[in-house]
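User: Could you walk me through two proteins back to back? I'd like the raw sequence and the structure tokens for each, with a short line separating them so I can tell where one ends and the next begins.

Assistant: Of course. Protein one, sequence then structure:
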Amino acid sequence: MAQRDVVFPSGRQALYERNRYSPAIRSNGFLFVSGQVGSREDGSPEPDLEAQARLAFDNLNAVLAAAGCTFADVVDVTLFVVDPESRLDTLMKVLPDYWGEAPYPTLTGVGVTWLSGFAFEIKVVAMLPEPDQP
């Protein structure tokens, strides 16, 4: 089995190791990013929904940056939302601040019943930048 090419954002490796998963894996020109939530440095949820969503995007952007990517490289997004009927308007208000300009990535939204104390999680697949050609 090939060694996984793991990407860790600065300052959060202990949190990922404690929870026994990788924040992102590089494979065949893509970056597969684990679901990111609006967790504070200690891993606890940010209580305010809008602030939690912004923090989830900030955490996502830190993982992307650690791999040399930005949200512009994202091709596929999956959003997980607890009680989407009451929360979707707030979340959709936050998206444009991070989404960038069209063309947008693909999007799948999933309503869930539990996210370990969080209301929102975002999982993405991004294209890795092509290495500089000699």
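----
Protein two, same layout:
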Amino acid sequence: MPGAREPRAEPCWADLLTSDLGSAVEFYSRLFGWRFDDGPEARAEGYLPAYLDDQLVSGLVHNDRDSGAPDVWTTYLNVADVHAAAFAARLHGGKIHLKPVEIPEQGTLAMISDPEGIGVGLFQAFDAGDLHSARRHGTRIWSELHTKHFDAVARFYREALGWELSTVSDSPEFRYCTLGQGSEALAGIYDIAGQGPEAQAGWRTYFAVDDADASVALAELLGGAVIREPQDSFFGRMAVLHDATGAEFSIIQPTRHRA
């Protein structure tokens, strides 16, 4: 993992906590074209790096079936000082779930949650800017926080992590803000308080695809499920899916003006 460049606590990485490594390898290798470091040593360590061609793009983390934790995509934020960021998170109403720990030759990792209890990782000395801008099939293209406590969570990210938030919409029907503005935006916060009890708060990971409809059909063939059918938006044609073990993620076929 390369070194950081002017981190703004922006999403820099996402990996999958999964209870079935074999199923996840089959699903994502065929859906996104990922190649996995799936040797005995990686399996024993419980972490399988994922590559697109020779570029590291993600990873799979083994989820013990007895842990009680659901299979889920985890978002990580690129910070200049992980110790200071973790302290600030606790100071502003969040919690520290994993104190900063050194990852050999990579950097320092911590896990926190915001005042709503939504977990997110902090990582120092990691730069995935090229992955975010590539918009190639199978690369992470966007990260978005869905919250039922919009004001408190937005305040937390402003005060604890220094986010400069730009309002996209502030109507009762649609409240949304971004870290940064317009084409320079790096993440979003979406108010889902009015969407009913079935709406789940948490970070959402979006991946670029060449053809949203074909990707949805393939995901279903591989044992996944469609949560939201493909639909057009300003950003491109989008869909929300479950993988074969129930982890939720989204896909976007980017429009030309976002390329």
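Residues 174 and 191 are 7 Å apart (CA to CA).

Let me know if you want the two compared in more detail.
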